[in-house]
Amino acid sequence: MITVALPKGALLADSINLFKTIGLDFSAFLDSSNRQLQITDPTGRGQALLVRTHDVPVYVEYGQAQLGIAGYDVIREKRPRVAHLIDLQYGRCRLSVAVKESSPYRSALDLPSHSRVASKFVHCAQEYFETLDLPVEIVPLYGSVELGPITGMSEAIVDLVSTGRTLRENGLIEIEVLYESTARLIAHPLAYRLNTDDITDWIDKLRHVVEQSL
What is the pTM of this model? Predict the structure, then answer.
């Protein structure tokens, strides 16, 4: 039986719909009265784990799930040892540098040396500013990152942006885009190599669905 790690939050509904097209129904996770974190497809051919999006690569890397769906942003940040298989083409967003609209900064290179930059994407942010040869202090924050510049704790943030509405409502603007992110299918490397639980058949079906939708 194949085990899939599914992410809570914005990617969940699309991920469930994707697996439903190949015959695995995990829609019980969409029932607000359901509190189960592990469910089995009615056909008994697969089961799914419902986990935090940042934990999906961990469950896959350690073999508790053969397949998982995670945003490219999470994969870039956590750098898990997993097989990176398919760009699923949904959950599109971008990792960006943002500052207060009232600030004088209009590019990352405008930031003063040793500025503070708040982010939950600590590794990605650090790597980006190193490529610019601009020394900054990355301040790890894991909620309401926008408050960094608003309160004066940081000059900038590095965070995910989809529509930009949250930034605008908090008086912030994007000044750089680090990279674009979409949902990705990942697999446990050994399970993929050994075709455990016919994993390659499921992957081929998912790839066909994605290709047909392009």
Answer: 0.91
pLDDT tens digit string along 4-13? 999 999 999 9
Residues 119 and 166 in one domain: yes
Stretch 204-211: mean pLDDT, rounded? Answer: 96
Instruction: Looking at the structure, tell me whether residues 78 and 28 fall in a common domain.
Output: yes
**Domain membership of residue 29 as a residue range:** 2-91+182-213
The amino acid that residue 142 corresponds to is: Y
How does pLDDT run across 122-169, given as a tens digit for each residue? 999 999 999 999 999 999 998 899 999 999 999 999 999 999 999 999
7 and 33 fall within a common domain:
yes
Q: Are 114 and 187 in the same domain?
A: no
